[in-house]
C-alpha cells in the first residue's frame, strides 16, 4: 500500500494512493483525514470537515464509493499509476468557491468557482491529480472495475471500447438527467431506510448499466473527447436548463443558441453527439420520465402533474405521455404491476 499525507508547496495536503478497490481505498482515505472506518464507512470529524464516505463491494472485482462531504483543508488527491489495467468511473457534482484543477497525464482542466457536474472514465494505469480548496462540496460516486472482472463480464463490443480506453486513457461524458436522478437518490437515502444498503447498491448498478448502454452505442471515432472543455461545460449548462424547464415551454433553439454562444447548427450537432438525441427530444423524453416519477410518488393527481409540467390541456399531456410509454398516465401503476 502506498499512502502519503503531507503539505505541498501550495499548502495543499496531499492524499496519495494507488487504486486497488474501494474497500481498501476507504481505509487509506480514513487514515489521511484521521477518521475511523466502521462497516466500510467513515463520518468526518469536526476537525476534518463534514460528511460521509462509504465503500461498497458490489461483487468481486467491482467496488464503489459514495462520497458526500467537504474538507476543512485544501487538498491534492494524487492517484498514482497502477500496475494492472482497471477502469475507474467518476460521477461527481462539485460546488466550490475556488477553482478546481484536474490533471490526467498530459490533460489539464481548470474548473472555475461554481457548480460542476463531471462524468469521466479513466484508465487506472494513469497518473491523476485533483486539487480543490477547503469547503468544496464533493458529492458523487466512484466505481472501480478490475481487469479480471472486465474480462469475465463484458462482451466483445465493450472490450473494444475499453481497449480503446487503454490507448487514450480517459473518456468524458455529459451527465444526463437519468444519471443525475439516480445519483440524487443515492445521496439522499436516509439512514432509516428499511433496506438502505440494497437500495444504494441497486442504484449504483443501474448507473453502471446505463453507462454500459451508452458505451455500446457510442461511435469511438466521433466521441466527446473531441469536444473542447469550454464547449463541454456549455453543453452541460444547456442540459441543466432543459431539465429545469419542465414547467415551461421548450426554450427554443434560437434562445439556447444565444445562451450557449454557439451557432444553432453547432449546438444541435454537439448536443446530439453528446446525448444521443436532439435538444427537443431530450427535453420531452425527460419531461415524460419526470411525469412518470411524479405519478408513482402518489403525491399528485394526474391533472396536477400535467399542470406542474407546463400543460394547460390535459389531453395534450396524455398524448405526449402515451407517445413515450405506449400507455396513458392513468395506466402507470397498472403497467408497473404487470
Tell me what the structure shows.
It is a single chain. This protein is α+β, with helices and mostly antiparallel strands and 338 residues long. The protein folds into 2 domains: 4-224, Sandwich (Jelly Rolls), CATH 2.60.120; 229-337, Arc Repressor Mutant, subunit A (Orthogonal Bundle). Helix content is 42%, strand content 27%. β4 (49-59) and β5 (62-71) form a beta hairpin. It is globular and about 60 Å long. The chain starts with a strand and ends with a helix. The relative contact order is 0.09.
Brief account:
Helices cover 42% and strands 27% of the residues. It has 12 helices and 13 strands.
Set out the fold topology.
Elements lengths: L3 E4 L5 E6 L3 H11 L8 E3 L5 E11 L2 E10 L3 E6 L5 E11 L3 E5 L2 E5 L2 E10 L4 E5 L4 E10 H7 L2 H13 L1 E4 L3 H11 L8 H22 L11 H15 L9 H8 L3 H12 L3 H19 L4 H7 L5 H12 L6 H6 L1
Parallel strand pairs: 2-6
Antiparallel strand pairs: 1-2, 3-4, 4-5, 5-12, 6-11, 7-10, 7-12, 8-9, 8-11, 10-13
Helix pairs in contact: 4-5
Averaged pLDDT:
88
CATH topology (level 3) name of the largest domain: Jelly Rolls
Main sheet: strands, sense, barrel: 7 strands, antiparallel
- Say which CATH homologous superfamily of the largest domain is assigned: Jelly Rolls
Question: Could you list the spans in which at least 5 consecutive residues all have pLDDT below 50?
Answer: 1-9, 334-338
Envelope shape: globular
Order of secondary-structure elements: EEHEEEEEEEEEEHHEHHHHHHHHH
From the N-terminal CA to the C-terminal CA, the straight-line distance is: 51 Å
Amino acid at each position: 500500500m502506498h499512502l502519503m499525507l503531507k503539505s505541498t508547496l501550495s499548502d495543499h495536503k496531499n492524499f496519495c494512493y494507488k487504486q486497488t478497490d474501494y474497500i481498501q481505498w476507504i481505509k487509506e482515505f480514513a487514515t489521511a483525514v484521521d477518521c475511523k472506518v466502521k462497516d466500510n464507512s467513515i463520518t468526518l470529524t469536526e476537525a476534518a470537515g463534514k460528511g460521509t464516505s462509504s465503500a461498497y463491494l458490489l461483487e468481486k472485482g467491482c467496488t464503489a464509493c459514495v462520497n458526500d462531504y467537504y474538507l476543512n483543508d485544501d487538498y491534492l488527491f494524487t492517484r498514482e499509476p497502477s500496475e494492472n489495467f482497471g477502469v475507474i468511473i467518476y460521477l461527481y457534482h462539485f460546488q466550490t468557491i475556488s477553482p478546481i484543477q484536474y490533471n490526467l497525464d498530459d490533460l489539464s482542466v481548470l474548473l472555475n468557482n461554481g457548480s460542476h457536474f463531471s462524468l469521466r472514465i479513466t484508465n487506472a494505469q494513469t497518473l491523476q491529480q485533483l486539487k480543490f480548496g477547503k469547503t468544496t462540496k464533493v458529492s458523487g460516486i466512484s466505481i472501480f472495475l478490475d481487469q479480471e472482472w472486465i474480462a469475465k463480464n463484458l462482451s466483445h463490443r465493450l472490450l473494444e471500447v475499453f481497449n480503446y480506453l487503454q490507448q487514450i486513457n480517459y473518456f468524458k461524458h455529459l451527465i444526463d438527467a437519468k444519471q443525475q436522478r439516480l445519483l440524487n437518490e443515492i445521496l439522499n437515502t436516509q439512514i432509516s431506510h428499511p433496506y438502505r444498503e440494497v437500495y444504494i447498491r441497486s442504484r449504483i448498478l443501474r448507473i453502471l448499466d446505463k453507462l454500459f448502454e451508452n458505451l455500446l452505442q457510442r461511435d469511438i471515432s466521433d466521441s466527446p473527447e473531441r469536444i473542447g472543455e469550454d464547449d463541454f461545460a456549455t453543453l452541460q449548462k444547456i442540459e441543466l436548463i432543459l431539465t429545469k424547464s419542465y414547467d415551461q415551454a421548450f426554450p427554443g433553439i434560437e434562445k439556447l443558441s444565444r445562451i450557449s454562444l454557439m451557432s444553432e447548427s453547432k449546438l444541435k450537432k454537439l448536443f446530439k453527439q453528446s446525448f444521443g438525441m436532439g435538444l427537443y427530444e431530450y427535453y420531452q423524453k425527460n419531461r415524460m420520465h419526470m411525469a412518470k416519477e411524479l405519478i408513482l410518488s402518489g403525491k399528485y393527481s394526474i391533472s396536477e402533474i400535467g399542470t406542474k409540467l407546463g400543460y394547460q390541456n390535459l389531453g395534450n399531456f396524455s398524448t405526449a405521455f402515451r407517445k413515450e410509454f405506449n400507455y396513458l398516465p392513468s395506466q402507470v401503476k397498472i403497467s408497473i404491476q404487470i
